[in-house]
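Morning, I've got a small favour to ask if you have a moment. I owe you a coffee for this, so here goes:
>
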Amino acid sequence: MTKTKRKLPIGIQTFREIREEDCYYVDKTAYARRLAERGKHYFLSRPRRFGKSLFLDTLKELFEGNEALFRGLKIHDHWDWSVRHPVLRLDFSGASFREPGHLNTNLMAQLSAIERRAGVGSGHPTAPERFGHLIEALHERAGQRVVVIVDEYDKPILDVLETPDVAATHRDYLRGLYSVIKYSDAHIRFTFLTGVSRSPQRGSARGNPSLETASKVSLFSGLNNLQDITLDPRYSAVCGYTDADLDAVFAPELPGLDRAEIREWYNGYNWRGEERVYNPFDILLLFERREFGAWWFETGTPAFLIDTLMARGVGSLDLDGMLGSDELLSAFDVDDMATEALLFQTGYLTIRRTEPRGGRLFYRLGYPNREVRQSLNESLLRRLTGDAPRRMEHSARLYDLLVANDFEGLETLFQAFFSSIPYEWHTRNDVARYEGWYASVFYSYFAGLGLDVTVEDSSSRGRLDMAVVFNDNAYLFEFKVVETAATGAALAQLKAKGYADKYRHPRRPIHLIGVEFSREIRNVVAFEVETLTPGSTRP
């Protein structure tokens, strides 16, 4: 256990610097050993800023035989340090590929730099041939097979997803490059590729024609011996920190911070492992600034994601609890990526639990933690409400009214939510036509405050639309649209279905709240409340 404070490796992705500067380091070398001993070609998908680049740099130093950097780590006594492999590393993480032709320019520059450092020349004018020649030449020169590492393999595609034609062009270009790895197999000791998106292997979607088609155009269709360890439980914590890591490695940083609050804010990412993990970027910023914030979320603007959700009519109520299969979550089709795959691969949803069905494995998805739930809903709310100037004022007022249980004030505030949305926003956004849009605005206001919100909560009698547990009170909501349901139907359903039973507690008041909307008026037209005091036998 680390007892003295060390340097926080914020923004440092170089293994050598972390070790030589005596920074905090969570030892991942046991994973590197297992990978090297049990296989050859690997692929790993993780969201941005999750430690992928650092792990790749650790592999680089390991295969180059730089023993001094690994003293005291798990792998040190289990590695042959006399063998040194040449490492060929391509890194697409630091460039923007929005400009036409920049992908080829960037790749050629990377290959030139590697050739210059290795003293290897090439007369090939195209990238795949040059890449293949370089692998063979490095093997011949060093007398040891080559280790090939590719960081953020998919960034040239992700940068241009909003223009599918360009994304498809980049995909085809990269497919030709990565196919070189397969036909250079005799010269390669080990391959590791990382990215945000997954890409299905040929045949992995057998039985599903649409997914088989996507598989055939996979970036890795020419590299079908690549092992995807993204959802392999043995490697679920290969990137990220576990609770045990925080207690052991970062113990000097924990005093003064609420351990339960750290878990609520940042823990929760899961790729089928026994433990959930933290995003390292969040934890390091928390220890540096000593306050809780959406550090990871704020480093990337999910504009494309929000635009996609709005265009598809996916409201915030639809997100928590989505269901996906392995084939669906691995799909990476630039023409039509599934919403579940997009949210999972980018880290806005994670695996909550597995659900075997008929010989197939399905995954129930959900928000990983408070940071993502709160921040994503704030972003959705800006779009759902047309970014009304008084939105933040409304959020603060909502919190105060809940503390006071001022239900008349809540009704007035909810009406103000919708009244503040400019008429022009409704006319130019089709999402306002979806009945779920009204409930999504409600949900996003509550979730944007970081409150404990549950949607579609199942019981033996049905599904409750939304539940909020706050300040020792339970607020149970049912939403109806008056054009499609009788007046009073929302509160009547709450009582008839007995949804309160699940939330009964000797000291907890339960508030049944029926909210009715009008599509024609575009606002709340009924707001009924019935409070059940602790010990009450009423429905």
